[in-house]
Amino acid sequence: MRLSAVRTGRSRWALSLADLCLLLLGFFVLLQANEAQRDAALTGIGTYFGAIAAPVQVDLQAEALFEPGEALLSDAGEIALLKAAEPLAHSSQIIQIQSIGLDRGLYRFDAWDLAAARLGAVARALSAAGVPQSRLRIAGLAEEADGKAPGKQIIRLVEKAKPAD
Fold it and tell me: Which residue of 42, 59, 62, 88 lies most exposed, with the fewest beta carbons within 10 A?
């Protein structure tokens, strides 16, 4: 009789563990099946357990924003920039502007000067759109774009926490 009581206790524990595993598996299958809601659900779960929210990051191809070989935003580029930066513009965090990779300068600029001038143009456009200059930081030039677009410039806008006063 004593031996069967030990087996019953072990089987109850194994059954509870199996139920937990199946519940978790079902949760992740449903989460994967509903891709449209997946990011929101994962963010909500992370927030519930005290996770820090990932900073907002926007990557824009410079050739889609600027006139070819220039640091002048095209009309369509300015609209695209302001639309992409809208989630960043309404927060109270610092917006870091960074260039990743280099475009080839055609006229007045070499590649480095062109990348730097474009960063300034993005900062001026955001400032003209109402983002306070105190929230804008130009971080400068970074390495190549990790295979995303070799030989092309990417403008990256990243939300950073304000430094403590």
Answer: 42
Q: Are residues 71 and 128 in the same domain?
A: yes
Expressed as residue numbers, the domain containing 91 is 57-160
Distance CA 81, CA 118 (A): 12
Longest CA pairwise span in the chain (Å): 93
Helix, strand, coil percentages, rounded to 5, for the chain: 50, 15, 30
pTM surpassing 0.90?
no
> What confidence tier does 8 reach under pLDDT thresholds 50, 70, 90?
low
Closest CA to 145 of 94, 87, 103: 103
Distance CA 5, CA 59 (A): 62
Question: Both 28 and 75 in a single domain?
Answer: no
Determine the Cα–Cα distance for residues 165 and 163; give it in Å rounded to an integer.
6
Residues 75 and 118 in one domain: yes
How many structural domains is the chain composed of?
2
